[in-house]
Amino acid sequence: MSSSAPQDTGHRLWSVDEHLADVLSAVRPLEPIELQLLDAQGCVLVEDVTVPVALPPFDNSSMDGYAVRTADVQGASEEFPAVLTVVGDVAAGSGELPTVGPGEAARIMTGAPLPPGAEAVVPVEWTDGGTGGGAAAGMTPASAAPEQAGGEVRVHRAAEARAHVRSRGSDVQAGDLALAAGTILGPPQIALLAAIGRGTVRVRPRPRVVVLSTGSELVQPGEALTAGTIYDSNSFALAAAARDAGAIAYRVGAVADDADTLRATIEDQLIRADLLVTTGGVSVGAYDVVKEALSSVGQPDEGEDVDGGRMDFRKLAMQPGKPQGFGTIGPDHTPLLALPGNPVSSYVSFELFVRPAIRTLMGLPEAEVRRPSVRAVLEADKALGSPAGRRQFLRGKYDAVSGTVSPVGGSGSHLIAALAHADSLMVVPEDVTSVEPGTELEVVLLG
């Protein structure tokens, strides 16, 4: 960071939209890289992928059974079966294929190529399986009964042309668009890429997000609490939220209220961060050390000339989450968002500001950067109050069937239990101080 002190713009009240716009103006999508398929899971494709070969690449059987000519099984029944000579086995992966002539059949397995001369496949359950008995329940393994690849088979039902045959190119044709640029690669997309022979793909990598909480009162879960201490939940919540947004998250244990320690910790984390998130220490208390610490993060050593950006600390016209910090730090101008320390404040702030930053780093289109929102009718026992001039975000439970939303818990920024049972945020505009039951509200969906 440059040698100038962080800017405290607390005298001006920023709107939620202004702050978000400021954050996103400093965030650019990460540069594309070529990754192996499994490493590309969760990443955003940066180029259209076309199909090089048809899928499936050949006509193949969708059943275990017998490849036949339709004329040979026409009118077949259990009473008057069609008796065919078995000319061999066709297994998945077979190279040389037997030719099926008049009065002949080839035993065929699911996924195996349709042999020359065959027009359809009859499932093994429609035959005696070559045993000379009644309807077969399945095939005997080839290793246990190799003779069943020859001999005769009785077919008890007729088959139409192309019955139980998956045609070449019935999934995709060569030259088709397999996946468009901007697609997030999940398991089905990875499967398609592998199926068409792609071993690598060009994507924007998942952003690396470092999350750290501050406060000498914080103890890690699993350790014993002492007088005046609480468990650190923020770093866990925000690391999980970063993963949910599509990032690779690194959680750093809580840092004590010491500016030098916090500064050193942040500088150590810059090497593995595309985005840094801190919680706590951004208000006006005597021990809110984030402002102090960030005044010199990334300063050049003597003789060096490094422009590391700057941090702004500001107040937002919102509840919860009024105090916020944002800037870029270090030689690579790594974005850093400093969120308030109360659990609900930090989580709401993450959803409103950090998640969009992560999704922008991923290179997602604008429509997928923010959480989706809907309009819903407030269902409550009484009116909900909201401070004048502040955009309030209340925890809610949304019912998509009825189109209603109900409050969960109170408005306190420490009520983490209520947050755990909410699936949405009810948005009360700045110019509204009371919301009556039956009023339609904007609802941000968190699920």
Structural overview:
With 447 residues, the protein is α/β, with parallel strands linked by helices. Helix content is 17%, strand content 30%. It has eight helices and 29 strands. Helix 1 crosses helix 7. The chain is elongated and about 90 Å long. The N terminus is likely disordered.
Query: How is the main sheet built?
Result: 7 strands, mixed
Please give the number of β-strands: 29
User: In terms of per-residue confidence, which ranges show pLDDT below 50 for 5 or more consecutive residues?
Assistant: 1-6, 298-307
Oligomer: single chain
The assigned structural class equals alpha/beta
Average pLDDT value? 89
Helix coverage percent of residues? 10-25%
Q: How much of the sequence is in beta strands? A: 25-35%
Spatial sequence of strands, sheet with the most strands: 1-19-21-22-18-14-17
Question: What's the shape?
Answer: elongated
Radius of gyration: 32 Å
In whole angstroms, the N-to-C terminal distance is 37 Å
Number of helices: 8
